[in-house]
Amino acid sequence: MNPDGSNRTQLTNMGQAYVPQWSVNGSRILFRKYGEPAQLFSMTPDGSELVQLLDTIDGGYDLSPNGTSLAFTKLDSTGFFHIYKLGVNDRTLEKLTDSERDGNPVWSLDGEIIVFESWRNQTGFGELYVMNANGSDLKRITNITDHILYYDLSPDSKKIAFSSGRARHHNWDIYVMDIDGLNIARLTNMGDNSFRGWSPIRM
After folding, report:
1. How far apart are CA 108 and CA 160, in angstroms?
2. Is the peptide bond before 37 cis (omega within 30 degrees of 0)?
3. Which of 29, 64, 81, 93 is the most exposed place for a label (fewest CB within 10 A)?
4. Which class for 157: exposed (0-12), middle (13-18), buried (19 or more C-beta within 10 A)?
5. How many CA atoms lie within 13 A of 179 on its CB side?
6. Angle at the Cα of 93 (from 131 to 157), degrees rounded to 5?
7. Whole-structure pTM over 0.90, yes or no?
8. Rounded-to-integer distance, Cα 181 and Cα 175, Å
9. How far apart are CA 119 and CA 122, in angstroms?
């Protein structure tokens, strides 16, 4: 639909489709189909060229800026969550992480790095980590010891904005920091603020 809410157009007719996400170049829309298990699909903005990307989706996902790779959360046979990368065209599957609970990957707009949340630090809270697109050079970039909710990289891939209750437990504020985790700055002080994305918006 238009920004003013006019010209609404139904794109799907397959039941409970939800969580739409634009590709960076605007050529595709990703969405989930509710079910047991949930599935992940892709289509063009007019609802055509429907493609099933995953027959099971267990958590967060993000399409690479060039549209060729999908980073996603997968629950394996051992009961652990890992991050995998799927080649959209050739269907090649690559496991990027091997901790017990990793998820919610987000690509940088240059396609070089992936930020994700992991509980490997054993503090009881997820912390943010960064790695190269092939899973190498993994680094922990936060030490917040409270829940992190929503995060995204700036268009130049130099900063990360995120929501956290670090200052007031479970009372969410928005923060920004450098990509290496330094220079954390609190941007809001009004409670219950959830961050959705930098402009240009990707989510």
Report:
1. 10
2. yes
3. 93
4. middle
5. 18
6. 25
7. no
8. 11
9. 6
Tell me if residue 85 falls in helix, strand or coil. strand
Give the integer Cα–Cα distance in Å for 203 and 200.
9
In this structure, are residues 166 and 184 in contact, taking their beta carbons and an 8 Å threshold? no
Strands of 25-183 (E only): list them: 29-33, 39-43, 51-54, 61-63, 69-75, 81-87, 93-95, 102-107, 113-118, 127-132, 139-140, 148-153, 159-164, 173-178
Cβ atoms of residues 19 and 12 within 8 Å: no
The residue whose two tokens read 């489709």 is 17
